[in-house]
Design a protein that fits this description.
The complex is a heterotrimer. Chain A is mainly α. Chain A has 12 helices and no strands. Chain A has 2 domains: about 160 residues, no CATH class; about 70 residues, no CATH class. Chain B is globular and about 70 Å long. By secondary structure, chain B is of the alpha/beta class. Chain B folds into 3 domains: about 150 residues, 3-Layer(aba) Sandwich (Rossmann fold); about 70 residues, no CATH class; about 35 residues, no CATH class. Chain C is built from 11 helices and 10 strands. The model of chain C has no long low-confidence stretch (mean pLDDT about 90). In chain C, strand 7, helix 7 and strand 8 form a beta-alpha-beta unit. Helix content of chain C is about 35%, strand content about 20%. Chain C starts with a strand and ends in a 6-residue tail after the last helix. The chains are: A mainly alpha, B alpha/beta, C alpha/beta. At the A-B interface, helix 8 and helix 10 of A face helix 2 and helix 3 of B.
């Protein structure tokens, strides 16, 4: 399982999967705003742990963890960069502050990754395309979106076949200086692109042959209807937003290191 | 000489494509590997040039374990023509396309020139030398792909589904071409489910199903066995179907060719 | 009245020097099962594209002459109008399925037409059942085998309930058993639903038993047109690039030796029956 599986739709049934994509999207936005609002580690940690039960309910623990693990590299990078910039160029009251602040930034990054992951793991591309359509994005774009997703595995397979075919003609992909390596990808990129273009022409033919563009008012087999639980989810998200704003404005959040008396 | 010793292969996504395959292909043989899609045919032949390495067991090409040699090195001996030429073609001219592999294998320019000339003539592509491969028709592109592999004169030639999309005339030319290559001493392996084409060639037939070899022998014996054919999603050759229906009149079952069929029927008519 | 009528049809692809076909004339009656064959490059694929309006509307180029399909002149109607009457199935099953589930793929054309949701549901189920793909309803096209994909492609065209279905080498990528199954499905559509079928095929050994009529093209011209049993017997030279079934070759070679079977066989079953009768056994 690769790290990207943490962003790919996992086709199982769970309460989170059932929630309307639009409601989930609002949740992601609220989370984004809240995460950016706070600089202190305590609220950010709170946001991090808040999502964990959602991940468990959605039964996507494994893939989600995979993504988190995969983003450790960037997390460390963010941490180190923050430490360096604070230490050398910022005002700080103590080392503990530097560490805590940098950690907080890292946690913020992870919180954002968390929420995107949860969104994509529990939302089928179909439903996503449908919700885009229903909020008014022109059908052509939604169609392009879902078709692109439909062909991702096909193109990935084709890329592998092309690589194999060229390797079988003596193409070496490893080794050599940078320029040579880039050059070596031309025999792979060109067939890939040419075939993608050919494929899209064939697709276009098939679409036209099935009355594409026949009616300005296109029917949709499925319709997304917001149910009570979707509105509830949105409501909760907004409640969280409001609470966060209140806290941010009126509550003095202590530093962790102060509490722990470091 | 290709030796496959109890090979198992599982793809990264968990699919077990080969489940204990053992066989030997001697130099100069002509072999057809057949079976339904997903039986493991293409997976098997990809082991012959090292594109895939066994998860268990081993594959030896002329005594060398494929795990110890690079794909490029093995490809010097084992030429693989993929099913879809568009997965290989990328050059500005047919000439460049054919010399691609030769350059990769380190041939010097003079030899490359000779080989390109030879390959172009062999496959009737001389007039397309400076033409872009993308401008050619489907059948012509297939020939360019074939030429670009033959150019480096591999001892072993593997063709993956060479007859798809070809009309009868093109198939006949291909058949004659394969026989010519085989007579010149090349080991030729075709992966196909085109039964009538195989019937015309009468090679050794290796039948696969579900990752295992379920039959290995003369085309005449393998392709005329209804049980085996059924297990591999193939259908019996036309003429064989006719004679199986006539079996209770005393006709043999393992008839594949029109000429032989005619002969048997005429013999029987003379008797009555 | 003919359901397809072509008069002096000439077409040249854009930027091409030679025309794909010239002065082609053709009449096809409703309910016919027509087998269209010929060597590569003879123009059969181009003709298919003309039948649903892809030529000239999608491809451009120059189309001269008259082509009327299901009462519509193709030059005067849009592709989507013609699509209600003519369905086109392509060679590569993968590139005809673009949705993430079979159900949505089969519904695609109907959604485009703006039909009410309930009607779409009904037709989708109907088309899936006829093509034997009902249990694949919620599967992703990518996971299906080639044979399954082609059947889904047929279902998605069938759902639009066209009078004519044109199929351009639909069995090219399929293994023999899947090819046989698909041809059976196509035959059923013709027999049970009276849909006019234009089938472009090289696999005459599998397809000719269903055809009322065979049309052989070469270099942009129709060179032979008639019942399969008659067409296959004609001057073999004209059939270069056309692989007539081996059982027909057997018939011909027996006839050369003075033995004429009671009819030209189009399938192994017919061949064995005729041979048995020739040996004066009663097969009933």
């Amino acid at each position: 399982m690769s790290v990207f599986d943490g962003l790919k739709f996992r086709n199982i049934s769970s309460p989170i999967h059932e929630i309307d994509p639009r409601a989930k999207f609002i949740y992601v936005c609220v989370l984004f705003v809240t995460a950016v609002l706070f600089n202190q580690i305590i609220p950010l940690l709170f946001l991090f742990f808040l999502q964990v039960p959602l991940v468990i309910i959605a039964k996507v623990k494994r893939e989600w963890l995979r993504l988190i693990k995969g983003s450790i590299f960037f997390a460390v990078l963010i941490f180190v960069m923050n430490v360096i910039s604070l230490y050398f160029y910022g005002n700080y009251s103590s080392i503990a502050y530097v560490i805590e602040h940098s950690l907080a930034m890292t946690i913020r990054f992870i919180v954002l990754i968390e929420s995107f992951s949860l969104f994509f793991l529990t939302t089928s591309p179909d439903m996503l395309g449908l919700s885009l359509e229903q909020i008014g994005v022109p059908y052509e774009f939604c169609f392009a979106f879902t078709t692109a997703i439909r062909f991702v595995p096909v193109l990935a397979e084709e890329a592998q076949i092309i690589i194999d075919a060229q390797k079988a003609r003596g193409l070496e992909l490893e080794g050599g200086n940078f320029i040579r390596r880039v050059k070596n990808y031309i025999p792979i990129l060109i067939p890939l692109i040419v075939n993608a273009i050919r494929r899209s022409l064939e697709l276009a033919e098939a679409m036209e042959s099935r009355a594409w563009g026949a009616s300005k008012k296109r029917t949709n087999l499925y319709v997304l209807k917001m149910k009570r639980r979707d509105y509830l989810f949105i409501l909760l998200s907004f409640a969280m937003l409001l609470i966060s704003i209140y806290v941010w404005m009126y509550v003095e959040i202590p530093f962790l290191y102060q509490i722990l008396q470091i | 000489m290709i030796e496959v010793e109890d090979v198992y292969f599982t793809y990264p996504n968990g699919v077990e494509a080969l489940r204990g395959v053992s066989l030997k292909i001697a130099e100069g043989e002509f072999v057809a590997i057949m079976g339904q899609n997903g039986a493991g045919k293409t997976t098997l032949v990809k082991h012959f040039n090292g594109l895939l390495k066994p998860t268990k067991g081993r594959v030896l090409i002329d005594g060398v374990d494929t795990k110890q040699v690079s794909v490029a090195k093995l490809s010097r001996k084992v030429g693989f023509v993929f099913q879809n030429p568009d997965h290989q073609l990328f050059s500005e001219t047919v000439e460049d396309e054919i010399s691609f592999a030769l350059k990769n294998f380190g041939f010097d320019n003079k030899v490359i020139g000779e080989r390109v000339d030879w390959a172009l003539n062999l496959l009737g592509l001389a007039r397309y030398r400076k033409v872009s491969p993308f401008m050619l028709s489907g059948g012509e592109r297939k020939r360019v792909a074939l030429a670009s592999v033959l150019a480096w004169d591999p001892k072993i030639l593997i063709l993956d589904e060479p007859t798809i999309g070809q009309d009868s005339y093109q198939k006949e030319r291909l058949r004659q071409f394969i026989i010519q290559m085989n007579h010149q001493g090349k080991t030729v392996i075709i992966v196909t489910h085109d039964i009538e084409f195989v019937v015309e060639c009468e090679p050794r037939v290796i039948l696969m199903s579900n990752g295992k070899v379920i039959a290995d022998g003369e085309a005449r014996k393998v392709l005329t066995d209804p049980d085996l054919i059924n297990k591999s999603s193939l259908i019996l050759p036309e003429i064989t179907q006719v004679f199986i229906n006539l079996n209770d009149l005393g006709f043999p079952r393992d008839v594949m060719g029109v000429y032989e069929a005619k002969r048997l029927i005429l013999e029987r008519l003379k008797k009555t | 009245m003919a359901i397809i009528e072509a008069e002096d049809l000439t077409y040249t692809y854009p930027f091409a020097e030679k025309s794909a076909f010239k002065n082609l004339s053709l009449r096809i009656e409703k309910g016919e099962f027509v087998l269209l064959t010929g060597p590569s490059g003879c123009g059969k694929t181009t003709l298919c594209r003309c039948l649903n309006g892809l030529i000239p509307h999608f491809y451009g180029g120059r189309l001269e002459g008259k082509l009327t399909v299901a009462g519509l002149k193709t030059t005067e109607h849009t592709i989507y109008e013609i699509a209600k009457h003519v369905g086109l199935i392509f060679q590569n099953p993968e590139n005809q399925l673009f949705a993430l589930t079979v159900e949505k793929d089969v519904a695609f054309g109907l959604e485009n037409l703006g039909l009410p949701r309930e009607e779409i549901r009904k037709r989708v189920d109907w088309a899936l059942k006829i093509t034997g793909t009902y249990d694949l309803k919620y599967r992703a096209p990518f996971e299906l085998s080639g044979g399954q994909q082609q059947r889904v492609a047929i279902a998605s065209v069938l759902a639009m309930q066209p009078e004519i279905i044109v199929l351009d080498e639909p069995t090219s990528f399929l293994d023999p058993q899947s090819a046989k199954n698909i041809l059976e499905v196509i035959h059923q559509l013709n027999r049970d639903l009276d849909i006019t079928i234009i089938l472009v095929e090289h696999r005459l050994d599998l397809a000719s038993r269903y055809a009322d009529r065979v049309i052989v093209m070469k270099d942009g011209q129709i060179v032979l047109d008639g019942e399969p049993r008659k067409v296959f017997l004609q001057e073999e030279t004209k059939l270069i690039g056309v692989g007539i079934p081996k059982v027909v070759r057997l018939y011909i070679s027996l006839r050369k030796e003075g033995v004429t079977l009671n009819r030209v066989p189009l399938s192994p079953k017919e061949a064995s029956q005729s041979i048995a009768e020739a040996l004066t056994f009663d097969r009933g």
